[in-house]
């Protein structure tokens, strides 16, 4: 085994800030939705809007970082993407329970497997932007109606925003489980805290 540096300081900071922001958005959002009472509707509404702006700010910063450092290349896959994803899915469904080795080895220039690449890419380029757009459509609904938007659109906007929130909850649950499937149960989480991970030579 050898130790490799996988996550730069900014990346770890961004990851945990993102986790904190999304967790706060989910809790305050579900309270605004009426699922439980924790801080009161009014406070939950303000907390939700505050963290929404926080998320937008951090996404802009992170995009800038991933592009200027060239780290976005970690998300590109060479060769047959579908075939590689299927190899990883087969590993998670069967291989992992038979102690088979991971189909893709980690190193500094390739820390994510093909399934992680596509999942994180879809989350960052499709899921979160859609959620933010629908959130802002919801927030500025009165202004948009005054500008000529059909008022009946409020229902589908609210429905899609809620649906995406539940999809995000499913992502977080799966994501946390998946992070325990590394070399040891905590090796991936330690790497996301310290930056360093032990990988096979
Ligand atoms: C709550 C919302 C969360 C989001 C949106 C999120 C998103 C992400 C993304 C995009 C990456 C890839 C980073 C990269 O390599 O470029 C990542 C990696 C990782 N995340 Fe999260 N994360 C969240 C929560 C968590 C939580 C709660 C944990 C652990 C308790 C966690 C543990 C990890 C670990 C260990 C990695 C390293 C790669 C891996 O094992 O998949 N994340 N996360």
Q: Number of DSSP strands? A: 2
> CATH-wise, what's the superfamily?
Transmembrane di-heme cytochromes, Chain C
Mean pLDDT: 96
Helical content band: 55-70%
CATH class: Mainly Alpha
- Unreliable segments of 5+ consecutive residues: none
Share in β-strands:
under 5%
Return the CATH topology: Fumarate Reductase Cytochrome B subunit
- The end-to-end span amounts to 5 Å
Oligomer: single chain
Architecture overview:
- By secondary structure, the chain is mainly alpha-helical.
- It has one domain (2-199): Transmembrane di-heme cytochromes, Chain C (Fumarate Reductase Cytochrome B subunit), CATH 1.20.950.
- 65% of the residues lie in helices and 4% in strands.
- The protein is built from 7 helices and 2 strands.
- The protein has helices spanning 9-32, 41-69, 81-93, 114-139, 141-146, 154-178, 187-194, and strands at residues 2-5, 196-199.
- Bound molecules: protoporphyrin IX containing FE (HEM).
- Residues 15, 18-19, 22-23, 111-112, 116, 120, 123-124, 172, 175-176, 178-179, 188-189, 192 line the site of protoporphyrin IX containing FE.
- Protoporphyrin IX containing FE binds at residues 15, 18-19, 22-23, 111-112, 116, 120, 123-124, 172, 175-176, 178-179, 188-189, 192.
- It is found in: Cell membrane.
- Residues 7-195 form the Cytochrome b561 bacterial/Ni-hydrogenase domain.
- It is a multi-pass membrane protein.
- Its main location: membrane.
